[in-house]
């Protein structure tokens, strides 16, 4: 395909004031990464601070391992890429065909508030390039506007549900609930049963509900890139 996709990962590792750690969810990097690279798409990783982004320790629990995460654990090329993510401020939209944001709770703190990230998403979208987000990552769209209107306004979207957040007992810890924010900003929010794969495409915007949806989001992204 000879296409290049930018993956933007969180640099944030504190789960509110709980004293617990967070970061990106490993499956939400691994599954889309292989779904795309196996099709010959080149993937470059970036994060707000550059360097090694934090992995949510919970996502390394044996209960959450998949073929993709096990493949990542042995993939020296990907592990080296992770150690050397580009600082987000140094990224140029022109170098890429699309952007993809894996989730985990971390993005709700740093990427959701990052004007650099907001400007980057706007640049991709207005250049007619796909923008994709999974699980908590649709939260980074919180303040993204195009021509003064929220990007998600009037768009079909999904993201981590209130009931899923409740199930992981972090409703009172996160700075905001992804589902509530998408609705508040005018998104036409939909979802499936908790923890089931679900992805929504609206033009150039692709969103996925939860970790199980990450491969589905990547498949939809590869269709747009084709």
TrEMBL record:
Residues 23-222 form the DJ-1/PfpI domain. The keyword Cell division does not apply. Keywords: Hydrolase, Lyase, Protease, Stress response. GO terms for cellular component: cytoplasm. The keyword Hydrolase applies. Belongs to the peptidase C56 family. HSP31-like subfamily. This is Dimethylallyltransferase. It comes from Pedobacter zeae.
């Amino acid at each position: 395909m000879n296409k290049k996709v930018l993956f933007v990962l969180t640099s944030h590792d504190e789960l509110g004031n709980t004293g617990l750690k967070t970061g990106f969810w490993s499956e939400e990097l691994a599954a889309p990464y292989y779904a795309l690279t196996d099709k010959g798409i080149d993937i470059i990783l970036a994060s707000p601070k550059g360097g090694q982004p934090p992995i949510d320790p919970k996502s390394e629990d044996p209960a959450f391992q998949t073929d993709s995460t096990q493949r990542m654990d042995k993939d020296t090329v990907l592990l080296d890429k992770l150690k050397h993510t580009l600082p987000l401020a140094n990224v140029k939209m022109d170098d890429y065909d699309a952007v993809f944001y894996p989730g985990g709770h971390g993005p709700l703190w740093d990427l959701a508030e990052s004007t650099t990230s907001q400007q980057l998403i706007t640049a991709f979208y207005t250049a007619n390039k796909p923008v994709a987000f999974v699980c908590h990552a649709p939260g980074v769209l919180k303040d993204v506007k195009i021509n003064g209107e929220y990007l998600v306004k009037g768009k079909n979207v999904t993201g981590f549900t209130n009931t899923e957040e409740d199930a992981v007992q972090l409703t009172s810890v996160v700075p905001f609930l992804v589902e509530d924010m998408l609705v508040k900003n005018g998104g036409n929010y939909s979802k499936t049963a908790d923890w089931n794969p679900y992805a929504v495409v609206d033009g150039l915007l692709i969103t996925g509900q939860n970790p199980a949806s990450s491969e589905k989001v990547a498949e939809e992204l590869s269709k747009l890139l084709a």
